[in-house]
Amino acid sequence: MDSFVNRFRGTTELWANEANMFDDFGPYDAVKEFSQPPVEFLKECTDEKSDSECRIKFEHGTTTLAFKFQGGIIVATDSRASAGSYIASQTVKKVIEINPYLLGTMAGGAADCQFWERELGRRCRNKERISVAAASKLLANMVYPYKGMGLSMGTMVTGWDKTGPNLFYVDSDGSRFKGDMFSVGSGSTFAYGVLDSGLDYELSTNDAIELSRRSIYHATYRDAASGGYVRIYHVKEQGWEFIGLFDVGNLHWEYNGL
Hints:
By secondary structure, this protein is α+β, with helices and mostly antiparallel strands.
């Protein structure tokens, strides 16, 4: 027994054993623990910087926004999906209902956003309402190991928890920011112009909904990759509420009609 204890009393032999492990297996690499997509194949087909004649040109375009006001949080998106210069769909649902108290938005690759935000919802089934901060951090931690592997995701995670309404931005690099207002996508510049001129924390619910609708409309008017319908949600203490779907073609006559 004494010989067994003496064997592990000092650290010299332990260090030697660890050195042997590194020789046998190499240093630990967390990325190797994850399944990796065929990144090199995708790079050959999609890298416009090194090959202007690449077969697939990913040009992501969208407009999503969310902001806090005295009545909670308003989330609004357009509904157009584009594949390069081709309009693939006008009815994409870019708000993902993670659970009755959490919402996520889509910007970037549709498949990436849908998969990871639904995976977030699966991991939040612990019989207690998770905080928005914890949910957004969980999402950031999930996608960070895939940094540089081709993910394309710029999402907002919003909801109501014990601390009140909260809004976070998370992207495919694992970046995470808390804020009171975000707009993401190719049309976000135009949406910010309307939001900055009209946003006030003391807005009524109806005025906040109207502001979000007008912001998305003007983004779709100026950005070719945004369009379709304006989809609006209202996040309250009791959970999120779907407000409605508004055709931007009809909104044109309301906001820009002669």
